[in-house]
TrEMBL record:
UniProt name for this protein: Rho GTPase-activating protein 190-like
Pfam families hit by this protein: RhoGAP-FF1
PANTHER family, A to Z: RHO GTPASE-ACTIVATING PROTEIN 190
InterPro entries membership: FF_domain_sf, P-loop_NTPase, Rho-GAP_domain, RhoGAP-FF1
Species of origin: Limulus polyphemus
Gene: LOC106477169
Lineage of origin: Eukaryota, Metazoa, Ecdysozoa, Arthropoda, Chelicerata
Domain Rho GTPase-activating protein FF: 261-340
Length: 430
């Protein structure tokens, strides 16, 4: 039996930040949910950009929200750059809006958000882990995991500050509100990290405001700033790991990297994964008639495929697969066109053996004349239902006759002109 000291510590962390009605927060939130989502469920297929804020009374009283203004995001283990593992329980302090009155739901705690969000003792019996907004009302169809023993003692806070431009919200309003939150968080004596969000679309002046905010004398330089992007998955883990290291100073101290540097590192990871997956499908998929359902099963155990799906999602993997098939088909069609153009001079010799058979027609009129030739169907075929041959089943059959569409190409016209020139030269030699 393991000793108590052998059990790794779990850090209970709350994400907080400007919340409320559209009047308070503007047209969109500051990104608390996306930050928590990316941190706890980081795989691309598990990341959602839309989360709950306005909901019905039924959903508010359901087991996920549980008549609380906070969400339990679940438990996750992360590893720092130094190789140290950290266990986290993550909650998000927010404010849910009634879809009938568009006012915050009434709950047992009546304090304004900037006070309520600093609570360090959270209780909510049988509250379920939140995964995504589609989960509400059909909770049994999703993983059901309850908040530990119905309660959490918060060890530290990630305070979220949005550095993007949001309609209906001024930067002054966000600074003022965040100050109220930080001032109350300071009273808890718990460590705080300020995480700027949406840095992939940041306004530089807003980033400067966040820097000035944490530099205020009253915070005594105790609040580090980490620049993040949940959508791009840049420095999200870092914000939480830095907080855990502040809670437990024996766990090391990670370097806080500027956003542009972190984004460049992330891009390098994505580029390497993309090239590896592209190489996989280039070497393994050579038939343009390949089927995704079958090929993806073959790839299921391939590390390059799995890594790409982790970073970009299965839909993105399928889109790249389809682009590859499109390229294969284009190359296949190009080869077939070259084959048809190669035999076209022989066909023209058969159907148009002399200058008299040309009737002094140009190529446009000659195409019509060719279709009236009694042997036309011996050498050419028409696509069904007015489809182009490339889009019809004709593209994949072993038919040796030339699709009529080929006569619409510049290459076919060039063949005709060469044939005409050759006949004229023969006539002049007589």
């Amino acid at each position: 039996m393991a000793k108590k000291c052998d059990v790794p510590r779990t850090f209970n962390v709350a994400a907080v930040g400007l919340s409320g009605t559209e009047k308070e927060k503007g047209s969109t939130g500051v990104g608390k949910s996306c930050l928590c989502n990316r941190f706890v469920r980081h795989l691309a297929d598990d990341y959602h950009v839309d989360h709950i804020s306005v909901l019905s009374q039924t959903d508010f009283s359901g087991r996920v929200v549980n008549n609380d203004h906070f969400l339990y995001w679940g438990e996750v283990t992360k590893t720092s750059d130094e190789g140290v593992d950290f266990n986290f329980n993550v909650v998000e302090q927010t404010e849910f809006i009634d879809d009938s009155s568009f006012q915050p739901f009434k709950s047992s705690k009546t304090d304004p958000y900037y006070k309520r969000c600093t609570t360090i003792k959270l209780t909510s019996a049988e509250k379920l882990m939140y995964i995504c907004k589609n989960q509400l009302g059909i909770e049994k169809e999703y993983e059901q995991k309850m908040i530990p023993e119905g309660k959490l003692s918060i060890d530290g806070f990630v305070c979220v500050f949005d550095v993007s431009d949001v309609p209906g919200r001024t930067i002054d309003k966000q600074v003022e509100y965040t100050c109220l939150i930080l001032n109350n968080l300071m009273k808890t004596k718990k460590p705080i990290v300020l995480a700027t969000t949406k840095n992939d679309e940041a306004r530089e002046s807003y980033v400067k405001e966040a820097e000035r905010l944490v530099s205020r004398r009253e915070y005594k330089g105790s609040i580090p700033l980490v620049e993040t992007s949940a959508h791009e998955d840049v420095s999200v883990d870092l914000a939480f790991i830095v907080l855990a290291q502040m809670i437990d100073r024996t766990k090391g101290k990670s370097k806080i990297v500027p956003f542009l540097e972190a984004a460049l590192r992330r891009k390098e990871v994505l580029d390497v994964a993309t090239e590896a997956y592209q190489s996989l499908i280039r070497t393994q998929v050579t038939d343009h008639k390949a089927v995704w359902s079958r090929e993806s099963k073959k790839f299921a155990q391939n590390s390059d495929f799995v890594h790409y799906c982790d970073l970009f999602g299965h839909d993105a993997a399928q889109r790249m697969f389809r682009r590859h098939l499109k390229k294969l088909k284009e190359e296949y069609i190009r080869r077939k066109i070259q084959m048809y153009i190669k035999v076209l001079p022989e066909v023209l010799n058969e159907l148009l053996p002399d200058l008299q058979s040309l009737h002094e027609c140009d190529w446009r009129n000659m195409r019509t004349k060719l279709q009236q030739h009694p042997d036309f169907s011996q050498y050419f075929l028409k696509s069904p239902d007015e489809q182009s041959w490339q889009e019809s089943d004709l593209v994949d059959i072993t038919e040796t006759r030339i699709p009529l569409d080929i006569l619409d190409t510049a290459e076919a016209e060039a063949c005709f002109e060469e044939h005409k020139t050759s006949l004229e030269a023969d006539e002049n030699r007589k």
